[in-house]
Amino acid sequence: MAENKPSSIEDSVLILDFGAQYTQLIARRVRECSVYCEILPFDTPVEEIRARKSKGIILSGGPSSVYEDGAPRCDTAVYDIGVPILGICYGAQLMAYQLGGKVSPSESREFGRAVLQVTDSSGLFAGLGKNLVCWMSHGDLVETPPEGFVVTAHTDSASVAAMENRARKLFGVQFHPEVVHTPCGVEILRNFLYNECGLEGLWTPASFIESAVKEIREQVGDGKVVCGVSGGIDSACVAALIHKAIGDQLTCIFVNHGLLRLSEADKVRETFKDHFKIKLVYVDAEERFLKRLAGVTDPETKRKIIGEEFVRVFEEHASQIKDANFLGQGTLYPDVIESGTKNAAVIKSPHNVGGLPEDMKLTVCEPVRWLFKDEVRKVAAQLGLPEDMVWRQPFPGPGLAIRIVGEVTKERLDTLRHADDIVVQEIKRAGLYRDLWMGFAILAPIQSVGVMGDQRTYDDTIIVRAITSEDAMTADWAKLPYDLLERISNRVINEVSGVNRVVYDISSKPPATMEWE
Ligand code: XMP
Asked: Could you tell me how many helices (H) and strands (E) the chain has, helices first?
């Protein structure tokens, strides 16, 4: 992860990570202020930090106490680099401790809403009121700030809720400006970034595209790039960016495994081939996948078969592209942060369903490795990708195969595709599509008795699943309005032949998962 920021990004800040669950959130907030930032481990050598020429540094929070053995500490030389530094929670405590102030372990953790009484509005609180709601989550507290610091805000339980050394431009806040529960948090960050660090907010989708195009050209030269596309936003954005940079030196491969949703394959072809005029190899592999899936009901076996087969098909077609030497990949910044090292960028297969074709000796080209998901969407929109694709809800690599409980057959896929399309259409019509992490249909391995007209039926069951989530780790079942559920149910039963029952999944994650398999 020691690689440099995108080459043409001049203005940036660094975030030193002390292990907080909120570090990525700090980075996202900074980027929302149109400022580029990167997260580095807390013990990054000071020479390396200096070499980045960033205009400011943020010390993140963290679960430790500064007095603990082995507590994470940055080099104290960081405070002498000469750029403004903002310590948040543990970062503020560490700043106080390392510069000679006093931090005291509090008897109990303070967790939740507090009212900040601002006593000095010249720095971080410029332009804000005197009483501000903020969100606290800490064990220790700064008791006495180091010499040269003034207290700029306090709360009922924290006498030093914010401190500043104006001469050295060092700032510390006990609360969390990055969370939404601190309503003026973004203003505070903006004051730090714009007023104190002198940043100009040059990080925009357009500036990113400009720098990414330059970098792709430098990396690829007159080489050739192969890129898998699936209809998902990450691979679509990568393909559009690479195409903008090197045009026909890019060939995209779209493997249709036959497990996609209604009209999805046509949409992908239309977008890349007709709209962007990208060289696209379209592989209709439906039969091949269905043959291998015949008779298989175990979820893990299904996933394994699809993953293996996908890589095989992709490889067969990629190896036919003469002189290809790069593989475009949709690695995102959270993957880079989590991988933690320069060389270990998490490798996603184009469909996220398997590994990379190993013996192809392709160098990866990862132009969105600096972006968070929400930034990928903005960049994709700026590049002109259709709204449907930009806002498409997540869809698993193994596709509808893991939404059919039991055997996957062409007939069952068609039933599910039809029902799923109705679910999505109605959710969109109700204006709820973007509020949900996912809303979709599942085909249950259950038949039940019904009555249609005067006829007894014994037909399939469709399960409707709709969830909200922030990060896919946890999720709540969505409280969809009854009239929407009613419309979905009526339409599915009336329009999808072979279905006579619709049920709604009211399980959250954990203990359930979002997908059924
Ligand atoms: P679960 O079912 O684990 O799903 O709660 C969490 C999110 O991950 C997606 N998902 C996948 N995405 N390949 C993918 O690219 C997969 O194999 C896969 N399995 C689950 C799922 O759709 C949800 O958004």
From this structure: 14, 18
Which of 348, 505, 515 gets mutated to test ligand 1 (max ligand atoms within 8 A of its CB)? 515
* Residue 19 backbone dihedrals phi, psi, to 5 degrees: 95, 15
How high is the pLDDT of residue 5? Answer: 59
Q: What is the 3-state secondary structure (H, E, C) of 374-421?
A: HHHHHHHHHCCCCHHHHCCCCCCCCHHHHHECCCCCHHHHHHHHHHHH
335 and 478 co-located in one domain? no
From the candidates 38, 164, 178, 366, give the one annotated as an active-site residue. Answer: 178
Cα–Cα distance list, 264 to 202, 256, 270, 485 (Å)? 36, 9, 10, 24
Q: Angle at CA 444, nearest 5°, toward 438 and 446?
A: 160
Q: What is the pLDDT of residues 210-225, one digit of tens each?
A: 999 999 999 999 999 9
Domain membership of residue 116 as a residue range: 12-196
Q: Is 154 within a domain?
A: yes
* pLDDT tens-place string over residues 323-351: 999 999 999 988 887 765 333 333 223 34
What is the tally of structural domains in the chain?
Answer: 3
Nearest CA to ligand 1 atom 10: 396
Examine the fold and report which residue of 196, 230, 257 is the final residue of a domain before the chain moves on. 196
CB 259 within 8 A of CB 268: no
Same domain for 330 and 452? no
Last residue of a domain, one of 196, 227, 247: 196
Q: Is residue 5 part of a domain?
A: no
Residue 304: give its domain's CATH number: 3.40.50.620
Place of tokens 């940036």: 12
Residue 397 within any structural domain of the chain: no
Ligand 1 centroid distance, CA of 337 (Å) = 20
* Omega before 510 within 30 of 0, i.e. cis: yes
**Phi (first) and psi of residue 503, to 5 degrees:** -125, 160
Report the predicted TM-score, pTM, of the whole model to 2 decimal places.
0.86
Instruction: Return the number of other C-beta atoms located less than 10 Å from residue 479's C-beta.
Output: 9
Confidence at residue 53, expressed as pLDDT on a 0 to 100 scale: 92
Selection from 28, 13, 6, 2 nearest residue 367 by Cα: 6
Flag residues of the chain having pLDDT under 70. 1-9, 107-108, 339-360
167 and 241 share one domain: no
Is residue 480 one of the residues assigned to a domain? yes
Q: How far is the CA of 232 from the centre of ligand 1 (A)?
A: 13
Distance 516 CA to ligand 1 centre (A): 10
Q: Tokens 């890129």: give the residue.
A: 227
Q: Are strands 102-118 and 131-144 parallel, antiparallel or unpaired?
A: antiparallel
